[in-house]
Amino acid sequence: MELFLSALGLAMVIEGLPYFAFPRQIKALASSLLKLPDAAIRTFGLMTLGAGLLVIYLARHFF
Questions:
Q1: What does the pLDDT look like over 8-45, one tens digit per residue?
Q2: How far apart are CA 57 and CA 6, in angstroms?
Q3: What is the DSSP string of 4-19?
Q4: Which of 48, 62, 59 is nearest to 14 (CA)?
């Protein structure tokens, strides 16, 4: 449970950094996302999920 909560906290810190550092650019990004088709956003999400799983796999097996 300690590892899970640490990972969750780290994810929240990393997610929050762009909102704190670049609020104007985040607003522009959010408005441009409305123009993208759902399939493009879904594909990006799937690729990000896959990359995250790959990083976890590599970290657990090689480090």
A1: 999 999 999 999 999 999 999 999 999 999 999 999 99
A2: 17
A3: HHHHHHHHHHHHHHHH
A4: 48
Cβ proximity of 33 and 41 under 8 Å: yes
Residue 54 has pLDDT above 90, yes or no: yes
Residue 12's Cβ-side half-sphere holds a number of Cα atoms within 13 Å equal to 6
The residue behind tokens 């994810």 is 11
Q: Are 18 and 26 in contact (CB under 8 A)?
A: yes
Per domain, the residue ranges of the chain are 2-62
Q: What angle do CA 37, 14, 5 make, to 5 degrees?
A: 110
Looking at residue 44, what is its pLDDT? Answer: 96
